[in-house]
Amino acid sequence: MSIKCDVLVVGGGPAGLSAALFLSNKSFSTIVLEKSKTCGPKHTKYDITEGNRIREIIDEIGINTNKTSSRSEWLSPNYSHIIESEIEDFYFKRGPGEDSLENVLLKKLNNKADVFFKAKVNFIELKKKEIATVKVNKDSKKIEIKPRYVIVADGPESEFRKRLNIDTENFAKFNGFGVLIESCQSDVIPHAKIYLDEKIAPGGYIYSGSVGKEIFFCLMTDDKFTKNESLKQRLNFFLERNTKEKFTVKNYFGGIGISGIQEVLLGNTLFIGGAALFYDPFLGYGLNYAIESAYFAANAIKKNDLSIYTEYANRIQKEFKDIFFAREIWRKANNNFFDKLIRAFNGEYDNSDEKINKILDLFNEN
Ligand SMILES: Cc1cc2nc3c(=O)[nH]c(=O)nc-3n(C[C@H](O)[C@H](O)[C@H](O)COP(=O)(O)OP(=O)(O)OC[C@H]3O[C@@H](n4cnc5c(N)ncnc54)[C@H](O)[C@@H]3O)c2cc1C
């Protein structure tokens, strides 16, 4: 079977599905390839992400977030501080649930784009540095797709990136491991909490949030420090120390994120979301960038002006390069540093330490 389309999207995560929706809403014939039977992570139930940069975009496509919060409590081993922020945190449901971000996007795409599940790319034909044909195996069928544009959204370990031999400068690789628990109380943690502890989450942090009676905890560590270690053990240890009441574990989830710099535009091919390594080098957030980059890539295609996308990507990559300095400080941070930082948040510090100032700058919303 051979099909022509305006846009071929590889990967049915938040980035790929958002891009497909933006484009199919504007009558671009769109095909999405997803290697699995379903879209989205199998076990993750919630992601919390900065809302300020995507508020208007998600309004435009009509996605509801589950909850917004403008408070987060930061805790070092000895101090705590509540940040009241203008930047709202959004909670998105993820995974197989009917009202997850992926499934809401899929429903909106219904009849507007073709989504091929269990689809595996087995050959890419390049002509004059542009992708001319993508050959796909789906079940026992072989499909040949001839797209005008290709959007690559197959996540941080992008197979497409490897096939096209794209060099990357990987600045930070995060290991994420989380747990969803059900609590007897509904308001145990009424807002996001960020716990800092060099021993449990080296080069990272532990965050938690509550949605109704469900509470999620996620441990983000720097891959350099926890490559072969059991993150489950670390998280269990943390939970034993920090949760006083009884709870039921609903599930564990995990994965990796990579923040770095790479080419995001090659001929007619645009990399977005995790496949473009768009993960905040400091916090490891990537959902906001996944949706935002999908929006800019779709706009560039709609206007037939791909420089719109390279300008966006250059801006993000410059932002990341600046944040990477803070990341290097974080990698070496110990509990003494975290205590100093939280005291500085509380105004109990003379702010003469350059490293503390660098981190404080990240939280300066102006
Ligand atoms: C444990 C963990 C916790 C996280 N928590 C947060 C958080 O709280 N807040 C936040 O903002 N971000 C968080 N992130 C990051 C966030 O999940 C990602 O930024 C986001 O999912 C990226 O979306 P994406 O669509 O680019 O890629 P993905 O979500 O990775 O989706 C890629 C899709 O492509 C499919 N695919 C892969 N290869 C192929 C292929 N060859 N062919 C076809 N399809 C393919 C995959 O099956 C998947 O459906 C977390 C990440 C992890 C691992």
What descriptors fit this protein?
366 residues; FAD/NAD(P)-binding domain; 8-stranded mixed β-sheet; 30% helix
Q: Your description of this structure?
A:
The structure is a single chain. This protein has helices spanning 14-25, 55-61, 101-109, 159-163, 223-226, 231-242, 287-302, 307-331, 335-345, 354-362, and strands at 2-10, 30-33, 46-50, 67-75, 80-93, 114-116, 119-127, 130-138, 141-152, 168-183, 192-195, 205-211, 214-222, 247-262, 265-266, 269-271. By secondary structure, it is α/β, with parallel strands linked by helices. It has a domain at 2-41 and 97-170 and 258-325: FAD/NAD(P)-binding domain. Strands 1, 2, 6, 7, 8, 9, 15 and 16 form an eight-stranded mixed β-sheet that branches. A hairpin with a 2-residue loop joins strand 15 (265-266) and strand 16 (269-271). Helix 1 runs parallel beside helix 3 (101-109) and helix 1 (14-25) packs parallel to helix 7 (287-302). The longest helix has 25 residues, at 307-331. The radius of gyration is 21 Å and the shape is globular. The protein starts with a strand and ends with a helix. The site of flavin-adenine dinucleotide has 38 residues, from helix 1, strand 3, strand 10, strand 14 and helix 7. Flavin-adenine dinucleotide is lined by residues 10-16, 33-36, 39-40, 47-49, 121, 153-155, 159, 176, 178, 218, 253-257, 273-275, 279, 285-288, 290.
